[in-house]
Specification:
The structure holds two protein chains of two kinds. By secondary structure, chain A is mostly helical. In chain A, 30% of the residues are buried. Chain A has a three-stranded antiparallel sheet. The longest helix of chain A is centred in the last third of the chain and has 23 residues. In chain B, strands 1, 2, 3, 4, 5, 6, 7, 8, 9, 10 and 11 form an eleven-stranded mixed sheet that branches. In chain B, strands 14-15-20-17-19-18 form a six-stranded mixed beta barrel. In chain B, strands 13-21-12-22 form a four-stranded antiparallel sheet. Chain B starts with 5 loop residues before the first helix and ends with a helix. Classes of the chains: A mainly alpha, B alpha+beta. Chains A and B meet through α2 and α3 of A and α2 and α3 of B.
């Protein structure tokens, strides 16, 4: 992947959430759904079909890669996903961009009364 | 898990919405993740698991479609890369398709109405097509079934064209004929399986040896019947149906040679028929040899077995018929007395099976085609209006260089998209319709079992949707391509639609719709009137609340006729003691059960050369008339005193009294019945009762007579208990009393008399309901069509109306103009419809009872109805037109 992370911005909410869910550890599809839902307080609810469309998209863009099951007891059909260096970079770039947006919103007093 | 449970299967099905490449990459994995999801949900309960399953399926289908349409894989928000050259045509088509979907999404009202309308039409058509295909057009389920023939006895003088045959004649035919590979005769019987507790009655068919040869279907296990099995004494062998074998014996491979107890007698299982084999109907579970415990030669004049045969290769139906005629003449010379006037006729078995219902099916098929046509016209109309409002957009695109064919293709895509969704909806609607039609359908329609939307029906629905899609899409496309670009751009939508040709076309649509709907309504009103007539028929009896059941006392265990009679008399006595039972009786057959037994009768002393007409024969227990509420006109009914030793007596009905004795008093006169032997003694007429519609409500009664069971013993009777309580509540007690007399005798075919009565109106009710529904649907669609055309016209003419109002036209005048043009169109439609209806209603004459196919009602009520509908349909648009503010209207351009 020779692409630059900045080219891919802005990310959609679901894409960013999935990348962030994978920051801590490799996860399979079901765990990603759980993690994203927990991280966003249920704001981002991914369903099976939507999830895999995003996974395909992120995979094609080289932001994540699938890895085979870790334990022998895992269902052989399942795959875990691991975030790539480009993925981390892209997530970070998007987070920075959002942080800029938030700073701007603060400056315009859009966020008064919220933390 | 992989092939197993339903949720997983549903998900796998939903996954098919994704493109194949996507599925290859992620399919298995997604299934595995779903299993995980589902397993967790199950822990929260079944409802939750189903919610997860359905939500997943919905999301999979939507995402799959989205994935197919927009390859959302490109993460970059920048424009899609330039298409590679070989891709450009495909991309253009995809772009058109995507654009079509977007247009439809932007106008959900248009899309929804069009889809619902077409979906209903396609659904009803698919259901009726499947029904007709199954019932009428499909070949019979046996190999080379086109060679199968049904043989009927005929007696032209006495008006019998499709009588059953006599065993004696069959025996001679079988030996002497040369046209058939084999002939077989059969007779449906009910046997009792007495190995089980309680004894269970089974639908069975007694068949002559060569039946499997005629049907060209040998048993899957064991052997077929032989001539030897037909000899009374060797006849206790049975062949099982696959279903009965599976159910009762668990598909035991060693069943052949095993004993089975039938009617309390030991039989031997000699064979099992293949899976899926049915004969003569799907109900039959056992076959036994058709064996006679009397000399077959005595049965020459008795017609009660069905005969079928398989034509030899190369022999035509006509040639076989000619041979059978010669054979019958030879037999008639040998046995002149019983065969006087009798002949034989051959009909293909397919024709014999479905001939009766073909007319009806074709009428329904025609009716549903009309409904579909009305629906299509509606949608074509809508899509034209839709296209006209977009004419400026189309013109702009054309001006910017879009090829005409490209615009046409895009419009065609819109039509196809609507038709495709409507087709899917139609298959669902069709499946539901079919199920309810089958549930309602009378049992007299053959081959209804196992009818379902099948591959043929799917192909039919798909083709239908395709044709409709092209038709409703291409029509406006064609018109769009012919439009004068410059004028359209200059004058806007109004010019495009105000073109006289467009208005004429839409007017033509209204006329056609109304005409089609009038034809349907005319047919439906004939059926409604016929049904009302039928419901008014007095059946001649009033049994009120009563339960009936059949009891057979087997001759094998009760060889003495008096014992059998005693059984029935005791049973009736015991039944009358059940609390809630008012009275009980037994008879050979109840009125309105659709069949009857006939024997000839003659007045005592009449010359033996005189004609001997057939009468409707009934053996009854003394309380029959009271139990069935059949009124006595003169004399007395039967009593316990009319025993075997007492003088033979008979009760006759009014028709017979009139036919045999004219106006003279029949009481005390004597009648003979052609029962054979000693039973032909003179019987004294002791009473006259009212006529009863014995066979069906719409069939006038044959002259009928009743004899006491004590004098004419009978072994299978319908037993009736009249109750003061809900008849169903005494069923248990009824069964216990029968079992109390003999635990090996079951009570079967239990029904309430109310069911029986309504059974006689099932067919006409079904016809009326079906055609009435179609007509109502057409009426609704036509009304919607009139409304949409008129309201569209008003919208288009707002400017003109404004001008006229500005020039002083009153609101009344404007309203009248709009309503007037609607009524004029509807009037033409009604006129055309009536003329066509007048020509086609005779096709349904066979469905009508005491109503002429050209009954004035059918040609008066529907037209008035449609004029009223047209007026209503134009009322709202007319009102809107009359409220046009001239200033706004004039400024609207």
């Amino acid at each position: 992947m020779t692409r630059n992370a900045d080219e891919l911005l802005p990310l959609r909410a679901a894409d960013l959430h999935i990348l962030m869910a994978l920051l801590r550890e490799d996860l399979h599809g079901y765990a990603i759904m759980q993690q994203v839902s927990a991280d966003s307080d249920g704001q981002v609810a991914l369903e099976l079909g939507s999830l895999y469309r995003v996974i395909a998209r992120l995979h094609d863009a080289g932001l994540i890669v699938p890895v085979r099951p870790r334990k022998a007891s895992d269902d052989p059909r399942r795959r875990y996903y691991r975030i790539t260096a480009l993925g981390r970079e892209t997530a970070a770039a998007e987070a920075r961009r959002l942080a800029g947006v938030v700073r701007l919103a603060r400056a315009q007093r859009l966020l008064e009364g919220t933390v | 898990m992989r092939t197993g449970h339903l949720p997983a299967r549903l998900v796998r099905l939903a996954l098919r919405a994704f493109p194949r490449r996507f599925r290859e990459r992620y399919g298995a994995e997604m299934e595995a993740e779903f299993d995980q999801l589902h397993a967790r949900a199950i822990a929260r309960g079944r409802a939750s698991a189903w919610a997860v399953t359905l939500a997943s399926c919905r999301n999979l289908v939507l995402s799959g479609i989205a994935e197919r349409i927009g390859p959302a894989r490109a993460l970059q928000p920048s424009p899609a890369p330039a298409p590679r050259p070989e891709d450009s045509r495909m991309n253009a088509i995809l772009a058109d398709l995507r654009f079509a979907l977007r247009v439809l999404r932007r106008r959900p009202g248009y899309a929804l109405v069009a889809i619902a309308t077409l979906g209903m039409g396609i659904g009803a058509s698919t259901a009726m097509f499947t029904l007709a295909n199954r019932v009428v057009f499909q070949p019979l389920p046996w190999p080379e079934s086109d060679r199968l023939v049904r043989l009927y006895d005929t007696n032209v003088e006495r008006g019998f064209t499709t009588s059953l045959s006599s065993p004696a004649n069959f025996a001679d035919w079988r030996e002497q004929q040369e046209s058939f590979t084999a002939l077989a005769s059969y007779n449906s019987v009910t046997l009792t399986h007495t190995d089980v507790e309680p004894a269970q009655s089974l639908a069975a068919t007694a068949v002559s040896a060569e039946w499997t040869e005629v049907l060209r279907t040998p048993p899957a296990l064991g052997r077929a019947f032989t001539r030897d099995d037909e000899t009374f004494g060797n006849h206790r062998v049975v062949i099982l149906s696959h279903g009965f074998w599976q159910r009762q014996f668990g598909g035991d491979q060693g069943i052949v040679g095993r004993p089975i107890s039938i009617d309390g007698n030991p039989y031997t299982v000699v064979g099992v028929m293949p899976r899926g084999f049915t004969f003569p109907t799907a109900r039959t579970e056992l076959w036994t040899p058709l064996a006679y415990d009397f000399d077959v030669a005595t049965t020459r004049g008795v017609h009660y077995i069905t005969v079928i045969g398989r034509l030899k290769p190369g022999v035509t139906l006509a040639a076989a018929g000619a041979e059978m005629d010669l054979l019958m003449q030879r037999l008639a010379r040998a046995h002149p007395e019983p065969l006087e006037g009798w002949g034989v006729s051959l009909v293909s078995l397919h024709e014999a099976t479905v001939g009766r219902v073909r007319d009806r099916m074709l009428v329904f098929l025609g009716a549903v085609a009309l409904v579909l046509l009305v629906a299509c016209i509606n949608v074509a109309n809508l899509s034209m209006a839709h296209a006209v409002t977009r004419s400026r957009e189309l013109a702009v695109r054309a001006a910017m260089g879009a090829a005409g064919w490209r615009l046409a293709r895009q419009l065609a895509f819109e039509g196809m998209a609507v038709a495709a969704v409507a087709g899917g909806l139609g298959i669902a609607v069709g499946s539901l319709t079919l199920r309810s039609v089958v549930a309602f359908a009378p049992t007299s329609i053959p081959r209804l079992d196992a009818v379902a939307i099948d591959a043929t029906a799917l192909v039919f629905a798909t083709l239908l949707s395709l044709v409709i899609g092209v038709a409703v899409g291409v029509l406006p496309a064609w018109r769009a391509s012919r439009r004068d670009l410059f004028r359209t751009l200059r004058e806007g939508a109004r010019a495009a639609s105000a073109a006289p040709r467009a208005n004429r076309l839409r007017g033509g649509f209204v006329v056609a719709q109304v005409a089609l709907a009038v034809i349907l309504a005319a047919g439906a009103s004939l059926l409604v009137k016929s049904f009302a007539r039928l419901s008014d028929v007095d059946p001649g009896f009033s049994a009120g609340r009563a339960l009936v059941g059949t009891v057979s006392v087997p001759r094998t265990r009760y060889p003495d006729a008096e014992e059998r009679t005693r059984f029935f008399l005791q049973l009736v006595e015991r039944l009358e003691r059940i609390p809630g039972v008012v009275s009980a009786a037994a008879t050979t057959q109840l009125p309105l059960e659709g069949y009857s037994i006939g024997f000839v009768y003659w007045v005592d002393g009449s010359p033996s050369t005189a004609e001997r007409p057939s009468g409707d024969f009934r053996v009854v227990t003394p309380g029959y008339f009271e139990t069935m509420g059949i009124r006595l006109i003169r004399g007395r009914t039967l009593t316990d005193g009319d025993g075997p030793a007492a003088p033979p007596v008979i009760v006759i009905d009014e028709s017979l009294a009139r036919a045999a004795f004219g106006d003279a008093d029949p009481i005390g006169r004597r009648i003979h019945l052609g029962l054979g032997g000693e039973q032909e003694v003179a019987r004294e007429v002791v009473g006259v009762v009212r006529d009863v519609r014995q066979r069906a409500l719409d069939v006038a009664a044959l002259p009928g007579y009743y004899v006491p069971i004590t004098q004419v013993p009978w072994s299978t009777l319908r037993v009736i208990v009249r109750t003061s309580v809900d008849p169903v509540s005494v069923r248990g007690a009824f069964e216990r009393e029968v079992a109390g007399l003999d635990p090996l005798i079951p009570l079967r075919d239990v029904a309430t008399v109310e069911n029986l009565l309504s059974g006689s109106v099932v067919v006409p009710r079904f016809n009326t309901l079906l055609l009435g529904t179609f007509a109502a649907l057409a009426l609704l669609l036509a009304a919607a069509g009139i409304y949409s055309v008129m309201s569209y016209a008003v919208t288009q003419r707002t400017h003109e109306i404004g001008v006229r109002m500005a020039l002083g036209a009153g609101t009344g005048a404007v309203r009248r103009t709009v309503s007037g043009s609607a009524l004029r169109l509807a009037g033409i439609g009604v006129g055309v419809g009536i003329v066509i209806a007048f020509a086609v209603t005779p096709l349904m004459a066979s469905l009508l009872f005491e109503v002429g196919a050209r009954d004035p009602l059918a040609f008066v009520v529907p037209p008035l109805l449609f004029l009223a509908v047209a007026w209503l349909g134009s009322w709202l648009p007319a009102r809107r037109a009359s409220r046009v503010d001239p200033i706004i209207a004039l400024r609207s351009e």
